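Design a sequence for this backbone.
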């Protein structure tokens, strides 16, 4: 039986394994309670996970690193400052505990966006930093396990070998697969053979000299991704062959909360909330206890979609919205900051 979209109904999954990848990162394996469910997805996609923290279900999106068709889902989760769900999973979730999950989704995947064939060869450049390694590693695994003959340059940036997620696996793949070329760039190389440095255009050229012949898949912190995109542009890369995803919060990066007040009314829940201009709409709605699912907090998953019936917001992402929905006033609350008094409809 396959894990298929079931409206908005989540399924209950059981944690069947949990182990540290690095000091501040764990991997989880989640299986169906009856152990009869197979998980089909496109490598690079994520799931929205619902975890009970202090009596309340909190939702977050996590990329998958298992293979499609496995009888479990694997996630790799890194500790983040004040990360309510990530830190709960790392510190408290036990093997045997259950979580809720919606089926895998996401545009950043290597099925909808396969590597282009250039000069008779499919070539990919996977670039990641930190926990951004998860979806791109899933892509590499899929190509290799299906023997898809994709030549893979795997460029990962980390602080040190000890802080490199999947380090042993990466080295194993590098040794085992002629089509998998590991390029690690470490801030602190220690006694490894990997180079030490901060990625820039020069490093990119040096580490992957034929990058212009490759399809690039990029995942990492937002600033890192903006920098890499800048290097690719600077070096004349064809951005038609470029795909990216970041789980860094999209809203509130460039806006500051003002002292000016604004009222957010939500008539279908008989609520009128005092807020400030510049505040992230999702935080205001969540703070008032309204039932808004805010999973990825990055404008990617669409779970926080709501309709602004009056007033205006400034939106950093409209990624999952159709032109028609945008026209009707739908916004992604996680990626929208308040500009005026608002009337909002949830659900
Ligand atoms: S929470 Fe995912 S788009 Fe807003």
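Sequence:
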């Amino acid at each position: 039986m396959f894990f298929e979209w079931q409206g908005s109904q989540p399924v209950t999954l059981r944690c069947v394994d949990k182990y540290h990848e690095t000091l501040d990162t764990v991997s989880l394996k989640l299986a169906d309670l009856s152990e009869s469910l197979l998980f089909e997805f496109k490598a690079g996609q994520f799931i929205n996970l619902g975890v009970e923290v202090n009596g309340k279900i909190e939702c977050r999106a996590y990329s998958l690193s298992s293979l499609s068709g496995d009888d479990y889902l694997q996630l790799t989760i890194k500790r983040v400052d004040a990360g309510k769900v990530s830190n709960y999973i790392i510190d408290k979730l036990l093997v045997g505990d259950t979580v809720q999950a919606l089926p895998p989704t996401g545009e950043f995947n290597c099925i909808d966006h396969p590597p282009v064939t250039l000069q008779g060869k499919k070539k990919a450049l996977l670039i990641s930093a930190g926990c951004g390694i998860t979806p791109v590693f899933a892509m590499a695994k899929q190509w290799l396990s299906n023997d898809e003959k994709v030549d893979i340059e795997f460029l990962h940036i980390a602080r040190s070998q000890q802080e490199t997620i999947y380090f042993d696996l990466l080295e194993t793949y590098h040794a085992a697969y002629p089509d998998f070329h590991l390029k690690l760039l470490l801030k602190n190389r220690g006694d490894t053979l990997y180079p030490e440095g901060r990625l820039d255009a020069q490093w990119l050229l040096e580490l992957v000299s034929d990058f212009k012949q490759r399809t690039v898949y990029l995942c990492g912190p937002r600033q890192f991704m903006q920098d890499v995109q800048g290097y690719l542009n600077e070096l004349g890369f064809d951005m038609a062959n470029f795909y990216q995803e970041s789980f860094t919060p999209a809203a509130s990066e460039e806006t500051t909360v003002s002292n000016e007040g604004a009222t957010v009314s939500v008539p279908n829940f008989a609520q009128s909330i005092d807020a400030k201009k510049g505040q992230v709409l999702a935080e205001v709605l969540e703070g008032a206890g309204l039932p808004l699912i805010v999973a990825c907090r990055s404008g990617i998953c669409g779970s926080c979609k709501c309709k602004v019936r009056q007033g205006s917001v400034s939106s950093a992402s409209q990624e999952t919205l159709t032109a028609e929905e945008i026209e009707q006033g739908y916004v992604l609350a996680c990626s929208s900051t308040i500009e005026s008094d608002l009337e909002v409809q949830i659900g």
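Helices lie at 84-91, 133-145, 167-176, 201-207, 222-234, 281-287, 323-328.
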